[in-house]
Amino acid sequence: MQKKSLPFLFTMGLALCTPPMMAETLSRDMKTLSGTLRTVEQSTDPVQLKDALNVMRAAAQKAQGKTPRKLRGYPQQSPEMQQYRHTYDRLIQQIDEALIYVEQGQIDDAKKVVNNLKITRDLAHKTYR
């Protein structure tokens, strides 16, 4: 169990101890999402999964308000920026769905949702990275 807890504890510590300036970057939010995703993939402990999914949700919400390099210079109300924000709406919705499954003790179903979340992430990376 200790080996399984180490990535989660590292990620949580990184998220909590990050200097404020770094915490405000989109890159930092992406690293938080990536690290906690690994924790979610590796863990079967409901408490650990719930904590990691909540960290992911917070990072996704912060990232949603930021602008990726590919969209710098686009007006905030442009179709491209609206689609970017919609992608995060979908990601947050999937995280919430996984949280519901974890709270119900349906870890396998939560893992399936996380696999769909990875598809959303991959599509977003192709478009905005």
UniProtKB/TrEMBL annotation:
Binding site for heme b: 30, 125
GO MF annotation terms: electron transfer activity; heme binding; iron ion binding
SUPFAM superfamilies per the UniProt record, alphabetical: Cytochromes
Described purpose of this protein according to its UniProt entry: Electron-transport protein of unknown function.
Lineage: Bacteria, Pseudomonadati, Pseudomonadota, Gammaproteobacteria, Enterobacterales
Top-level taxon of the source organism: Bacteria
Cofactor: heme b
Family: Belongs to the cytochrome b562 family.
InterPro entries found in the cross-reference section: Cyt_b562, Cyt_c/b562
Gene3D superfamilies cross-referenced by the UniProt entry: Cytochrome c/b562
Signal peptide: 1-23
Keywords: Heme, Iron, Metal-binding, Signal
Cofactor note: Binds 1 heme b (iron(II)-protoporphyrin IX) group per molecule.
Protein name: Soluble cytochrome b562
An example Gene Ontology CC term for this record: periplasmic space
Region annotation Disordered: where it falls in the sequence: 60-79
Organism expressing this protein natively: Providencia alcalifaciens
Pfam entry (one): Cytochrom_B562
UniProt record, GO biological process: electron transport chain
